[in-house]
Amino acid sequence: MVVVGGGVAGLSAAIFTARHGLDTLVVDAGQSILRRNAHLENFPGFPAGVNARQLLDLLSEQAEAAGCERIEDTVVRVEESDDRSGFAGETEGGERYRTEYVVAATKNEVGHLDGIEGVGIIDRGKAFVDTNERGRTGVDGLYAADRLAEKPHQAIVCAGHSAEVGVTILEDDDHPFYHDWVAHKDYFTDRERDLPPGCEEIDEDERESNALAVMQDRFVDRHPDDQETHPSLEQ
Ligand SMILES: Cc1cc2nc3c(=O)[nH]c(=O)nc-3n(C[C@H](O)[C@H](O)[C@H](O)COP(=O)(O)OP(=O)(O)OC[C@H]3O[C@@H](n4cnc5c(N)ncnc54)[C@H](O)[C@@H]3O)c2cc1C
């Protein structure tokens, strides 16, 4: 699967698909609008808010830990393969890829989809893609997530919808019903139940100590990157 766009949305979809073993590549042009946010005060889980560039770094780190590959480049073209079994894509840097699934998570950029017939582009000053509630477009294997799928312009909404699109792809790819739950040791097996697909049982302390160390380290200092201004204000 290829995710075009590696902001909060694209990375959220990628975390879900990569965690379930789907080969996932994120191609990102590096212009996430999160770089312009001052401080995210409404992203659940951070009671005093979180630096938006720090959140972007944490999401990238999480996607890579899940097994996702990331490259910084711009996708210039996506086309359906002749036999309609997938897509071929090309980046500005000359990389080519073939894939069964594409997720467009590019906020309002749609130029790379110009070569695909049957994508409903909605133009309201900004461009959107016509999708159903789960992010499926009119073209099999092509999905659009977050702002592009007309979701509200809030980081958690974009993340949530894109995670849902990731799970939708797993369903469409015939993966077994999928939870992605991490449960207490013996939570299922003590009740003589098989572990459902995508579930794990862990020791109480198994990951907590690592999580504490990672978060303490990532939040020791202020994030080094400055907040970016709107491009129209750049000299
Ligand atoms: C000033 C400002 C303050 C904000 N404050 C808040 C706030 O406090 N709380 C809140 O919830 N939301 C806030 N938002 C909104 C929030 O930032 C966005 O809703 C959210 O970041 C959208 O995520 P995204 O992944 O869709 O977009 P982005 O994070 O912009 O990611 C899209 C990515 O796609 C890449 N891309 C585009 N085209 C291509 C291509 N062809 N090939 C490869 N990559 C491509 C871009 O480079 C970019 O990295 C704010 C926005 C702004 C501008």
Automatic annotation (TrEMBL):
InterPro entries: FAD-dep_OxRdtase_2_FAD-bd, FAD/NAD-bd_sf, Ferredoxin-NADP_redctase_2. This is FAD binding domain-containing protein. The keyword Oxidoreductase applies. GO terms for molecular function: oxidoreductase activity. The keyword Flavoprotein applies. Residues 2-32 form the FAD-dependent oxidoreductase 2 FAD-binding domain. Keywords: Flavoprotein, Oxidoreductase. Signal peptide: none annotated. Gene3D superfamilies: FAD/NAD(P)-binding domain.
